[in-house]
Structure formats: structure tokens, C-alpha cells
Amino acid sequence: MIGLVTTLVIGVLAGFLAGQIMRGRGYGLMLDLLLGIGGSILGYFVFGLLKLTPSGLIGRIVVSTAGAVLLIYIARKLH
To answer: Most buried among 4, 32, 42, 78, by the most CB within 10 A?
Structure first.
């Protein structure tokens, strides 16, 4: 249960950071946070394909933020 809560908090933080990094027309705070949670999953998937594993809290935040940035980028291209 604690792992799920930690993952959600990191995803929300990653969404906020990705929203700041990917300035522009944006989707608003709430959707950026949701994209951050989805991006967190995407980040772990992409980094797993590259055989890279995050270490510690900072590593998890970096991987999640990178995935969220990628997901926001893809969403903007499709929109």
C-alpha cells in the first residue's frame, strides 16, 4: 500500500515538473498531474527497455519526469 502511495506521489510530482519543463499551451495543472502518473509508467517502461534502473528516490523522480515529458510531448503532437 505504501509503495502505491509513493508511486502516485512521485507521478504527481513528475507531472508538475514535466509541466514546468514543457512550457507552452499546456493542459492545465490537473491534466499535467494525470499525465505525470501515466508518464511515470511510460518512463519505467522506456528505461527498462534500455536496461537502466533508477536508484533511490531521486532516480525514480528523474525516470518518472522523463516519462511524463515524453508523454506530454506525444499528447501535444497528437492534439
So the answer is: 32
